[in-house]
Amino acid sequence: MEKKDIKSFTFEQLQQEVAAMGEKAFRAGQLYQWMHQKLAGGFDEMTNLSQGFRQRLKEQYAYTHLEMVDRMISGIDQTEKYLFRLEDGNVIESVLMRYHHGNSVCISSQAGCRMGCRFCASTLGGLTRNLKPSEMLDQVYRIQQISGQRVSNLVVMGTGEPLDNYDNLIRFLRILTDEKGLNISQRNITVSTCGLVENIRRLAQEGLQITLALSLHASSQEKRRELMPIANKYGLSDVLEACRYYFAKTGRRITFEYSLVGGVNDTVEDAKALAELLGDINCHVNLIPVNPIKERDYVQSDKSAITAFKNKLEKYRINVTIRREMGRDINGACGQLRKSYMDAEERKQMV
User: Fold this and answer.
1) Are 214 and 230 spatial neighbours (Cβ–Cβ below 8 Å)?
2) Are strands 91-99 and 80-85 parallel, antiparallel or unpaired?
């Protein structure tokens, strides 16, 4: 019989499991604290639980504890990139970024991705599987342990489309923000999506105070379709209407991610069209100079084009910033480290 994934239980679910084992109710609180506050590496570390209880836990439950395969630290800005191995041998990557307002971790929500965005390394091998809540949580936990740094901000923008793993994502968010666990503020969490309309609307009704970041990357349906295959399913007008709905339900300003690709979507005409598109939405535009990947021929816009684009948006009173490039010297773009590792493993098997 397959063991239950204990680190993916909410506190209420854990209480039910502990009661079913015939243990006293307060044991659930101790167990939850070991997993989500003290960040124990396994049941054996839970020293205030009886040896018999720990043994039964080991027999009945799986305990997620990610194995670090690689850790790279940027010589430019001290960004740290991690490669973790899952229990089934799949690998995922996560990033620790240091800002003046606190430490931010970017996690993966899937092993691989099926969305196929043209400029993203995450999609090159397709989707392998969804991550469990415990596997999303443990990226944060392991980085906090290994780095010795308190994590105060989180972005779900690594490998995978978070809203394509909807139920596990919601469970993960509720556990991460639980006051009995790490208690990270919901307002310090951003979830990115390429635009799954139905799930944006579902997310708006969850009662969460997280920021929604939409990967927009184009100011017209035609150009968006060229860059993002998901645009063949969801029209730009439908995606933006879902974003308006999200703001109406949550009061949380929308972030629009816009990767600037040289000669593709970075002209002042593109900027003008973007400003007209977003003019009635309470939003912030995050301009991202695209990180080139060797499998694609897209190039980063030059600095003058980036500045002109930003200036044009500001002229139309759009709130805009240019994302600071982090970790470019350590395969900073989403999916690059994982892809490099998988390519190397494949070459070894061919020898």
Assistant:
1) no
2) antiparallel
Task: Say what the pLDDT of residue 324 is.
Answer: 77
Mean pLDDT split into 10-residue runs, the chain, 351 residues = 94 97 97 98 97 97 98 91 96 93 95 88 86 98 96 96 98 98 97 98 98 96 93 96 98 96 92 96 93 67 93 96 75 60 59 54
Catalytic residues: 93, 334
d(CA 222, CA 264): 12
Paired tokens of 87 = 């229990």
Q: Quote the CA–CA distance of 216 and 134 in Å, as a whole number.
A: 29
CA torsion sign, 144 to 148 to 154 to 159? negative
The string over 280-291, giving b where at least 16 C-beta atoms fall within 10 Å of a residue's C-beta and e elsewhere, is eeebbbbbbbbb
Collect all residues with Cβ–Cβ distance below 8 Å to 146 and sequence separation of at least 6.
68, 71, 82
CB 128 within 8 A of CB 112: yes
Round to whole Å and give the CA distance between 245 and 247.
5
Cα→Cα distances 51→25, 54, 59, Å: 17, 5, 12
Cβ partners under 8 Å of residue 213, min gap 6 = 155, 157, 190, 191, 192, 193, 254, 255, 256, 257, 286
- Give the C-alpha separation, 321 to 313, whole Å: 10
- Residue-wise DSSP of 145-181: HHH---EEEEEE-SSS-GGGGHHHHHHHHHHHT-TTT
| C-alpha–C-alpha distance, residues 190 and 323, integer Å | 15
